[in-house]
Amino acid sequence: MDKKEYEYIDLASHRQEMRLVHLLPGAWQDRVSCTLEVVTLNDKPRYETLSYVWGDTTGTSPIFLEGCSFPVTHNLQSALRRLRHTNEERVMWVDQLCINQLNDNEKTQQVMLMPAIYSNCQEAFCWLAELDARDKEFVVGEREPEPEPGRHYGGGTIKSAFNLLSLIASGDHMSELSCFQFTKPSSLHIKPDFAPAFQGLRRIVEQPYWDRIWTIQEQILPPKATITFGPYTLPLEVLIAAGESILLHHWQTCCALAVDSLGLEERVTLQQVFFKTTIMGNILSGYNKSQNILIEVLQTARNKNATDSRDKVFGVLGLVNNWLTTTPILPDYTLTDIEVFAQVTVNWITNRRDLFILTGNMLRRPHIPSWIQDWAPAATFEGTEYHHETGWNALYWKYSASLTKGARSKLLSNSELQLEGIFVDKVSRVALQMVTNDWNDAKFFIDSWEEFVDISNNSEREYVGGGKFYDAFWRTLAGNLFWTGVKTSNLIDAYRKAVPEDRRVFGLLREQIRLAKPQQHVLSDETAGFEKVLPVTARYRTLFVTQKGYLGIGTTGIKEGDDVYIFYGGNIPFITRSKEETGDLCSTETTHKRCELIGDCYLHGVMEGELMKEPEEDTDSVILC
C-alpha cells in the first residue's frame, strides 16, 4: 500500500476551500488510514474537529494518507487510533493533515479560516492523552472498554476523575461534597475511596494540552466540545463549571479555610483545575457577550505556549469579537514576530489613545524594543508569574493618573515610539522584590519593607503626597484598594478605594501575618479585604522610594536612578531608564530623551491626576526604544 510521498494540491482561497480528513474504519491494531477531500465552507459540509497538542515533532509515527506513508506526531496518531470507528468512516478537520505545513501562504489563509472551521463543526474532541501504565484502566495492545454508565467513583483513575469533576461542578460547598470528610473547625480530608479520583485529576490537569495557545479557540468556538482522555469523555461545560465552583467557594471565602486545610497535593490539584479553566471560562464569557478585546484576551492567555511565537497573537484572533475603534489584525506568516507584536501595540495606542498595552511584565527578548509587548511563550522567560500580572493589569482601570487626556504618540520607526507626559521624579532607593508562596513567606518581606522605610520612626510624619506616612505605606502596598467580597462578573468591580477605616483591618492583617504558619494561604474572614488585594498589588513586585519622598510599588527590574513619568493616556505611572546611561542609543537623531521602558507602577499621591493640574508647558517628550 505504501506509495511515494504525498503531495498536496493547492487550495482556492477565494472559494474558502479547506480539506477534510476521512478517517477510515479499522480494528484497534490496524494502522491508521485516511483520505482527504477538498470542500468549501460555503457548502456547509458536516464534520468534526480535533483539538490536541502536536507533541514532540522530532519523533513521528506513520499513518496512511491517500495510500502514502505519512508521518504524524505520536500524539496525533494515538488520537486518530482512539477516535476511529470500527465499521464506518469519521469525517474530521485535523490541522496537521488538512493544512500543507510547508506552505506559509496556505497556512496564513487556513488560519484565517480556522474560526469559521471550528464554529461550523458538529463537535470538537479535545484530546488530552492516551491511557498509560499509570492508569488502572490501561490494557496493553487492545482497545480499552467503554466507560460504564452511572456515577461510579471507584475503578480507574481517569474515569473516576471525570466523575469527580461532575461532582464538584454541582456547585455545592466543599464541605457538602461526598468526596470530602469534614471535621470542625473547618478541616477537610479526602475520603479514601476518592484517592484514585484525585490521582486521576492530577493527571488530567498536568497534560500539556492546557498550555497550548490554539486550544482556547478550539474549545470555545465549536457548538459542542468534549474532553477526551483515552476512552473516557467529559463535556467541556462540566469542566468549566467545576472550575467556576472552585473559584466561587474558595475565592469568595466561604470555603477558603476548609480548602486551605487539605493536603498540599490535593489543594494544588484543585487550584490547577481553577487555573486551567478560568482562562477558558473568562474568554468564553467575553465571547458570548461580544466583549472580547484583543489586548485583554492576549493578557488572559499570557501563560499559553506556541511553537511559533507569532501564534501567540494569531491563535487568539478568532476569539476577538470587539475591536472597539481599532483596525482588525489578520494573520500573516510573512511578518516577523517583532512586526506582529509591534502591530498589536501600535494598533491599540493610535486607535484608543490609551497606554494599557504598556502595562504588566515588560520582560522581553533582547531583539524586542522595550515598548513592544513580547507575547512569546511564557516558557521563554523562566520563572515569570504571568497570572499575577493579569490581576494587576485589570486594576489599571481603577486609576486615572493622566485624567482624561489621551495618549500623544508618534511612531518614529519600527523600533521607536515617542510619547508625551509629565516627569514626576527619580527613583532613589529600591527594596527587595516580594516573592512569596504563602503568608508565612510574606512575613519576611513586609518586615523588610517596614525596615526599608523606617516605619517605626516615620509613621506620623507628613507624606509628600498628603496625609501621614504610615497611611501612605499601607495604601501603597494595597494599591489604595480594598476587596469588598461582592460577587461580580467583572473583577475590578469587587474592589473599592481604601478608606481611613481600613487602616484597622490592615493592622489586623499585619498581626495575623506575623503568626502565619508555613503553607498557610488563608488568614481570616475579617482580613479578606486585604488578603485578596496584596497578592495582586504586591506579590512579585518591588517597593521603592523617589527622591522627593514618594512611595511606590512597581514591576521587577526597577533600579536607583530610573525615572517616573505619567504619560498622557496612561492611567498609571511608568518607569523608564535613560538610554544614555545604558550606552544603548536609539537610531533616530533627535533632541528628545531616549529611554527604555522598564514597566508600570503604583505611586501614592499621583494616581488620581494630582499632577495633571500642572501647566501644559511642563510636558516632556520621550522616545521609547
UniProtKB/TrEMBL annotation:
<dbReference type="InterPro" id="IPR010730">
    <property type="entry name" value="HET"/>
</dbReference>
<dbReference type="Pfam" id="PF06985">
    <property type="entry name" value="HET"/>
</dbReference>
<feature type="domain" description="Heterokaryon incompatibility">
    <location>
        <begin position="47"/>
        <end position="218"/>
    </location>
</feature>
<dbReference type="Pfam" id="PF26639">
    <property type="entry name" value="Het-6_barrel"/>
</dbReference>
<protein>
    <submittedName>
        <fullName>HET-domain-containing protein</fullName>
    </submittedName>
</protein>
<dbReference type="InterPro" id="IPR052895">
    <property type="entry name" value="HetReg/Transcr_Mod"/>
</dbReference>
